[in-house]
## 1
Amino acid sequence: MTDQHDYFERFNSPALDEILGRPFPVLDDGFVRVVDYMGNDSSIVQAARVSYGKGTKKVSRDRELIRYLLRHQHTSPFEMCSIKLHIRVPMDCWRQWIRHRTASVNEYSTRYSIAINAAQKTAPDAWRGQSETNHQGSAGFISPEEGRLFSLREEELHKLTRDIYNERIEGGVAREQARKDLPLCTYTEAYWKIDLHNLLHFLKLRMETNAQKEIRDYAITIGHEIVSRWVPVTWEAFNDYIMNSQRFSRLEMEILQCLLKGLPDAAQKKAEEFGWLDRDKTGVLFKRQERFEFEEKLKTMDVQVPWL
Ligand SMILES: Cc1cc2nc3c(=O)[nH]c(=O)nc-3n(C[C@H](O)[C@H](O)[C@H](O)COP(=O)(O)OP(=O)(O)OC[C@H]3O[C@@H](n4cnc5c(N)ncnc54)[C@H](O)[C@@H]3O)c2cc1C
């Protein structure tokens, strides 16, 4: 990048050009690949300079400017870059993905075409257990011995539903109706076009550890394989200021202030005041999501949780 950004200059990303069309595998039969894109880190700087004017001393360097914009949520310059991906993804994962409304989408039509003959399979050692702390999440794995039965039954189910689907198609049933009993693990394909600002929002939500593993795998691939090549300066800033940063509530700040002053007892008292350490009749701590989340933040900073 240079200090001079002509208002009409057009930018491309050689590192992204190199991987245009290359499918990055995700899950057992999915992929993500870049079809097309517009702009790069310089386009963000170019757009911002329209607002700030060239030569503003405070934001004179491109990298600093991008980092400043991201830190301060001055997001519109990031909307100047956009990307079009071709993705192959199981329908249950796609159902979460499609909730991100700020993208433009065209999906493979199973009214028009025969449903893709691929269903996501689960290996015996890949069945996850239900999390006790997060009602939406998973924790640990079912033993591979038990998992073997689930995988076997999964295979039977996939075969049965596909056979019934084929039977209907061969019997002349309309594709739009024949598909109704296909499982959610059936793969679909789509073009997904989104600007960089909204893509970063998607990545923030879907790369997080509380996102479901399957969509997380896609988000991590998009982030590490694609965004890092496309807009390396923005990617670095995103990791520094968004992905690997923490936000603290007033309550958490009050406890942290006690801890920073070396007063763990006072910190514990605060947590008691907030009702985070209430116990049942047998003396067992109630499960409090807010407390768990704070404990996780302390652990990532290697800070001893005073009440544990
Ligand atoms: C871990 C996790 C668990 C989830 N669990 C559930 C669940 O149990 N049930 C469920 O239904 N969903 C669930 N979701 C989906 C979630 O509620 C959002 O719908 C999804 O993450 C899309 O986020 P978004 O709306 O911010 O993104 P986008 O739709 O991409 O929107 C980006 C931003 O644009 C703005 N925006 C977009 N559309 C509007 C609008 N119409 N009005 C105002 N502002 C708008 C908002 O600022 C929004 O943040 C979950 C998501 C995650 C990450």
## 2
Amino acid sequence: MSLPILTTDASLLTLTNVARVYHTRRGLLGGSVDVRAVDGISFTVMPGQTLGIVGESGCGKSTTGRLALGLEQPTEGHVTFEGAPMPPAGTAAWRDLRRRMQLVFQDTLGAMDRRLSIAEQVAEPLDIHGIGDKSERADRVAALLRDVGLRPDQAIRYPHELSGGQRQRAVLARALATDPALLVCDEPVSALDVSIQAQVVNMLTDLQAARGIAMVFISHDLKVVRQVSHRVAVMYLGRIVEEGDPDELFADPIHPYTRALVSAIPVPGPRLLPRIVLTGDPPNPADRPAGCAFHPRCPVAVPACRVETPALRKLDDRRSVACHLASTNSRIAV
Ligand SMILES: Nc1ncnc2c1ncn2[C@@H]1O[C@H](COP(=O)(O)OP(=O)(O)O)[C@@H](O)[C@H]1O
Ligand SMILES: [Mg+2]
């Protein structure tokens, strides 16, 4: 069990020892299997700050994002938003809260109604939440589209008539329409060309700073996460294995898994870290290894790692690591 992180009154979003278990069937005749998609995580997001979440596919990032928005109920632990428990999805209290927290994900066409023009899509949440009168809404839609860099002639187009990057801008305009305090962005630029990614990410961080929006920014792309985040959490098989300041964490990763991820980032010139290639089976949450879930792939595992699950411990004010071998004085030689 990871220790609960102390929250201050000022925190916007807090997850405390949150787990999410899915019951799935294995094959036609197989019995049901419990998948601990998220396995006891705690974090706090402060207003206006971005928490980046990185990790391989299947490690529980999207589930964490849905838990943070109340779209998914925790099996264990609890989620608070603006100091109050997250109301269950679908209730009037939760619907009311939805204008304060929005989700942006990778699939822009799936996020939009193909029958509505871009301007109509952006106006929709204003209608739903009864914000402004007709002319105020029109002004607000125009301002939002301008803010995300879309032209008035693009506002009258339909989703399939825009490029992926333009559609993601429109999705963002709609997410921003209700003045949210929190945006959960789940791989928001992963489907876009690299050159377009940078533009959309820059626009997103500019708007976030100007409006003081907090973000949970989920991506498997460490470079993007480093660029946008105030804090970074690295996930492995449903748990946070390392958390800290992005520059420090990427310059001096401590957990062997983080070291492997960072060593794989393509960089020009000589590497700071030798390339660490992970061996062993890719992680499978339906068949989680005992002890530290990373131990079968860990180049420095000791016998204790097979038995005891390491808690996420603070090494100093700026870094937490879940590894038996991590300590402030002796960084792990991998
Ligand atoms: N609705 C669901 N039902 C059953 N299993 C799920 C469900 N959603 C996610 N999972 C499983 O939980 C694990 C974590 O998934 P996810 O949160 O989507 O990871 P990520 O976003 O990091 O790729 C995966 O093994 C996935 O198959
Ligand atoms: Mg995902």
## 3
Amino acid sequence: MDIEREQNRVIPQKCPVCGAQRDSLSYVPIGNNNEQTIVHISCAKCAGAAMIFVSQNDTGMMTVGVLTDTTPTEARAFFDSNIISDNDVIAVHDYLDTFDGYASDMF
Ligand SMILES: [Zn+2]
């Protein structure tokens, strides 16, 4: 599978807000690893913006898009500051391992 071609196929080619064509859009990659790509799309015509999350594995590719009011720089800073570390995952696992109660009590 040609990953880049597949990503181009699933990443919107029109503005999700006003429908402007691709030449009005700016695509900025925010994050990328083997299984996920995050792209910030902004539109020169309407100033709308969206975050596109592309996930892929052996079974296929899935795209989720959400509208945003962030710039690409703000979006990148947001994701950089919200990285979930291995220690965070272990802490949640340990908490749930010893938790004895209703899920609603956790929050
Ligand atoms: Zn637009």
## 4
Amino acid sequence: MIANITLNLPSVIEFGAGKIGTLPHHLQGFTRVFILVDKPVFTKIEPIAGELEKSGSTVLLSTEVVPEPPIDTLSGLLQTVKLFNPDAVVGVGGGSTMDLAKLLAVLCSGEQQIHEVIGINKLGSRKTRLILAATTSGTGSEVTPIAVLTDTREKLKKGVVSPHLVADVTIVDPELTLALPAPVTAATGMDAMTHCIEAYTNRFAHPVIDNIALQGIRLISENLETAVLAGDNLEARTAMALGSLYGGLCLGPVNTAAVHALAYPLGGEFNVPHGVANSVLLPFVMDFNLPACTEKYAQVARTMGVTIQGSPDSVAKEGIRNIKQLSQRCGIPSGLRQLNIHAGAIPSMAKSAMLVTRLLDNNPRKLELSDAQAIFTAAFNGSAG
Ligand SMILES: [Fe+2]
């Protein structure tokens, strides 16, 4: 029997080259517009801000984005935005920018404090219009009800999950990704791949999302390397943008699992970029999960283009090897050792990861503390698949 599902998505998704040009249309009637923008695309947004001002809006542009945003960064920005009192907030950037914009849009007009909204469904309401435009192909934040912050005191990533974080309008314009540096393209692309794989093999997987996830896996495996090696290839960038959008669509209704849970302490304690942490851990978590979802991993492998004949187990293992090789060809380190993480940190990282129960509960195989330690130990040396 097909399970119930709730799809909480933006009212409008604008997808395609040049679609950032639709931004003024979606801001018609809004008079005070705050735009948070990543520095590399500032020059693309500045003329649009000028256009808005000409049509009578007051616009405040800010590039105050910190990667993997700490709670203090949000707190500082929130003061500025509350003073400006916008009726629309726009986030143009990668996951960090979009997550900040989401929280600013919700918190700027209300009384809730940041610490009160961390967790699931803690947000009261949103009165301010929220528009997001993705400039990386990976996080999927442009279509999710999730924002992630870094608690620098506890050295942990903390999630805010609420339907009020879903944008009114999302713009996915692959032209905005053309200038992305190769390492960011690689890491964000593997993050999107991880979203698709963890949703497809999730304990709460759903047929609606399974199809989207498999299409995402196909697009990313076929196009990531080209996008990394030839960043100005619009065809590969467009395919990656779609693969990433598909990965993002997996997150709200189904979400990720143990790869993301184990990646959290790498980001929180060692500032490893989210996509790199996921990419390094993905094949090792798949090795661990293999007995629990052999057939589904075999399907992942076939979707990636694995054609060998054999048992589901052997096909699945070939798929895990392919994922590791793809990540290496894109220049991502293969083990924790290369990320300057010392082996002595493994017990505390495993303990921190076990706190991320909202994601671990989704994992196809139950994972204990000793399993988390074993996965980190295997990933330390980088010898999966
Ligand atoms: Fe992710």
